Fold each of these.
Amino acid sequence: MTSAHTSATAERTGIDPVLSAVGRFPIEGRLESVSPYGSGHINVTYLAVTSAKRYILQKMNTDVFPDTDNLMRNIELVTAFLRGRGVETLHVIHTVDDKPYAVLPDGSYRLYDFIENTVTYQMAPDRTVFSDSGAAFGRFQNHLAAFDASELTETIPHFHDTPHRYQDFTRAVKEDRMGRAAGVRKEIDFYRAHEDDYPVVMKALDDGTIPLRVTHNDTKLNNILMDAVTHKPRAIIDLDTIMPGSMLFDFGDSIRFGASTALEDEKDLSKVHFSTDLFAAYAEGFVGAVRPTITEREAQLLPFSARLLTLECGMRFLADYLVGDTYFATAYPEHNLVRARTQIKLVQEMEQKDGQMQNIIACIMKDAK
Ligand code: ADP
Ligand code: GN1
Ligand code: MG
């Protein structure tokens, strides 16, 4: 995972190479502009505006997702399935030669219709929006329950296998390619001290105490489009990581990102707090939607999953900092370290508030019966 994405990050402002990519798709109207768009960390996203409509063009990250054919096959299968159930979803536009993506000398590109009159949030603006997003991810989970998992290719093996992520992390510390480890001893020790937490969910999946489901796996708040007028959820996007997984991955990752009082990359840690109120709001929405299928054991593990996914993501940021920022898009050299530090702060507060979180879930489970 090296050169292509690094250069893709550097290219964020260089529009020229993408103009020929647009030309490979049967766009409506005359192309008026193409500009960088959104805050995703993986693909390079552009808004393409024509005289007739708007599109999302993405240079796909083929380092992260090398099997592009099967990735796009997954997305087309899932979006067709969702559309068939009346769910608003992404629409993949084929190339002029009827391929789901275009291969150009500088990389692979896909085109989606821009889902109009929607907004995404980098932070929960209030309790209601976050609760509604929980309900939307819960409903999404319910839809996927009817999807045949054997149809799907695993686009990133071991994606939420936290012990596996921890191995990658320890390797990055050991190799210390950039000579950055000495400056982040405290952060490294934090992840070492939590080693016993990492296997809990994988073990529960392995021994069958919690069920394997089809999950989204990347449920941060900016991967859901909300209606610009009503602020109600419209479409769940970023479908690259739909794979077999645990419901706990989806719940935990949403909390990690959305139950914070600050941005994922806030430098001033005094602004970063874990909000039990936002946790409760999301849980009310999510559990309310999945109540018919959630098992007692899954419900018990919801508070732990928030901590686990925050630990996992933080160690991924720190590992990426140590190997030289080859995976997540970064805007400055310390960006991944800043992100890792917000995740550590959140975990520390989640640990202090574990009792409260458990009570919240117990009440919601009782009320939702
Ligand atoms: P990444 O994998 O890099 O996170 P995403 O697929 O999440 O990329 O897209 C990045 C951002 O672009 C999203 O957070 C959202 O704001 C916007 N976006 C993506 N697809 C669409 C779409 N079809 N319509 C409107 N906005 C979109
Ligand atoms: C990435 O693609 P994006 O920006 O929605 C990452 C997630 C991380 C997240 C951290 C495929 O999500 O796993 O949780 O960054 N996606 C992939 O913000 O690795
Ligand atoms: Mg995204």
Amino acid sequence: MKKIFVTGALGQIGSELIMKMRANYGNDNVIATDIRKPEEHIVVQSGPFEILDVTDAEKMHTLAKKYEADTMIHMAALLSATAEAKPLLAWNLNMGGLVNALEVARALNCQFFTPSSIGAFGPSTPKDHTPQDTIQRPTTMYGVNKVSGELLCDYYFYKFGVDTRGVRFPGLISYTTPPGGGTTDYAVDIYYEALKRRKYTSYIDRGTYMDMMYMPDAINAIIQLMEADPSRLQHRNAFNVTAMSFDPEEIAAEIKKHIKDFKMNYDVDPIRQGIANSWPNSIDPTAAIEEWGFRAEYDLAKMTVDMLEKLKEKGIENL
Ligand code: SER
């Protein structure tokens, strides 16, 4: 990874990944791209930045060539709830963007990463300790995109020798850039609302368990997988990774340890609840641990302490 080209650089993952990679590999060696360019943004100011719509294959190729990219990190995509509301747009953006990025990687001989998700599983997948290799028949457009993406990335590896690698991320929790249009977003919103209003109304019901991970662990996982010795990789697209699994009551109880008068209410959104119900309760990351040494530092308690502290530092507190 000497010249790293990133799409979706202003998204929830991209914005933190760029800053960590610029610190590790040098500011000028990480080329950030996104569909918009907010001049005051730290990602725009700290190194090369280009406007790129990932459905524009020619521009993606031109830019990657101009910067002599040897690594493509493709992040631009719609999340699950938005994809369910706009399935055709999701197919065109998520799949069109991915195949364009893979083609650039093939043409320029780049190493390649794109995230998959717990959304790549469906109602017929074993729900607890979901194995690395198992049934994947998702019932959401997002899931269809993610499984297709996993297959396409493996195809580019076997057919063209592109060094594609990926992880199935769980819900990602972070304090820098909010996620948008995901099913697991409640687990981010809850921290903001707990600090601002001492209460939160959850659109996900009690007893709904989903895998989650704190952003620093997610960023480390991407870098570690990309740097892993390829001879150790039995799998490629994509590895199960997770740090914790909880339901809304458990995260609320953890927050209550720090904000005593915090109150949780429920107003379940049938669409996002339906998506959550189709996903695993907890996935098994053994393959990632064995093949490239994946390890998560943060559990629910440690993450909650850090989230509340960092959000307070950002001034997210109303009382
Ligand atoms: N966090 C994502 C979503 O909820 C899952 O990959 O859509």
